[in-house]
Amino acid sequence: MRLKTYIVQNVSEALPMIKRDLGADALILNTKKVKTGGFIGFFQKERLEVTAAVEAQPKKKKAASKAPEEAAAVQKASVPVPPAPIAAPEDSNPYLTGDLINELKGIKQFMMQSMQEDHLPASLKPLNQCLNSQEVTKEIQSEILAKMMLTIGQQPDVSVAQIHRMAKTEIVRLIGLHQQKPVLKDPEIICFIGPTGVGKTTTIAKIAADLLLREGKKVGLITSDTYRIAAVEQLKTYAGILNIPIQVVDSAEDLNRAMAELAACDIILMDTAGRNYQQKQYIDDLEALLADKNKIQINLVLSLTAKYEDMKKIIDNFQTIKMDQLLLTKQDETSSSGAILNLIYHYSIPVTYIANGQNVPDDILTATPELIANFVLGEDDND
């Protein structure tokens, strides 16, 4: 690993130097304030010491020039004793030492502190404000902005359009690194769970219509939502419009019966009651109902109108029920879509669909990286 130290006024000044000397893949390991100059201890100026590093390329092996026996003896004698294993970070790297790992753990915290508005080039300040308004977490903001600062350096002539294109490319890249692939399996039932008021029933109707009208599949519906007034009637209305069968269940035994009744269907979509996710009894009831998880794909439905902190609590409270996918609704009812990126970055649950209106079956979109980047940057279209 190559290390290099810079004495600068601020991080923005150091970034183009780091890129020039160590390349765009370099990482900032440490920063500290130091005093320089002055005369016999007086009139010193406070500066910033920045230490950066880049992984060294493994050296190419030289062709053997000794006799085979002598070369083998030298090789045997020079093999070092393997060091004791150390706890590696997520992107395990054999070149890192224990001290460097501890330094790397503080990188994101440092980046969040250094990527403040007054440290950014003027060309990136509108992007920073956009990410703030979209409620992208500080951790993700700092990663996007640091990468872009290394890319553009201090170029004063970068246009707004160029910044926008570069930001979209960086967000798409970030999603590609963190977005999990949906588990490829052939479930008998796709079940939708989630708190009250997130739009599960309407979303199920959209997906049912899409599967029926666009993919030509035989679709069946099941609902266990006997808790909410008129919930069964709402889904029955959709089933009548689409001319597809529906079953009502309230127990695991009922679910087996309903599946037998709908055996001729290619796929079954199941609605569940939306209740207070903080009530343990609700989670326990869902677990009992969905006991045979090998037959069921579970989609957690969340509304983008909720605060991100509440979304995290919902996911954490549903952890005992294995969630296969996330489906996000009401994108059209919020002015900030950064939670989509936050969820992909922080959780290993694939985000598959984003619902953006009440129209059945049109207002539901496949969650591609490009679409998500558009939403995060404040664009409403799918171009």
What does the secondary structure layout of this molecule look like, with pairings?
Layout: E1 2-8, H1 11-22, E2 27-36, E3 45-54, H2 68-78, H3 98-105, H4 107-114, H5 125-133, H6 138-152, H7 160-178, E4 189-193, H8 200-213, E5 219-223, H9 231-242, E6 246-248, H10 252-261, E7 267-271, H11 280-289, E8 296-303, H12 308-317, E9 325-329, H13 338-346, E10 351-355, E11 364-366, H14 369-376
Parallel strand pairs: 4-7, 4-8, 5-6, 5-7, 8-9, 9-10
Antiparallel strand pairs: 1-3, 2-3, 10-11
Helix pairs in contact: 1-6, 4-6, 7-13, 7-14, 8-9
Report the mean per-residue pLDDT as an integer. Answer: 77
**Low-confidence spans:** 61-66, 71-96, 101-106
What is the general shape?
A: elongated
What does the largest sheet look like? 8 strands, mixed
Count of individual beta strands: 11
Helix content: 40-55%
Q: What's the arrangement of strands in the largest beta sheet? A: 6-5-7-4-8-9-10-11
Task: Decide which structural class fits the backbone.
Answer: alpha/beta
Overall radius of gyration = 27 Å
Give helix and strand order, one letter per element, not per position: EHEEHHHHHHEHEHEHEHEHEHEEH
- H/I helix tally: 14
Q: Which percent range describes the beta-strand content? A: 15-25%
End-to-end C-alpha gap:
42 Å
Describe the structure.
This protein has helices at residues 11-22, 68-78, 98-105, 107-114, 125-133, 138-152, 160-178, 200-213, 231-242, 252-261, 280-289, 308-317, 338-346, 369-376; strands at residues 2-8, 27-36, 45-54, 189-193, 219-223, 246-248, 267-271, 296-303, 325-329, 351-355, 364-366. Helix content is 40%, strand content 17%. The chain is α/β, with parallel strands linked by helices and 383 residues long. Strands 6-5-7-4-8-9-10-11 form an eight-stranded mixed sheet, sandwiched between helices. Strands 1-3-2 form a three-stranded antiparallel sheet. Residues 61-66, 71-96 and 101-106 have low confidence and may be disordered.
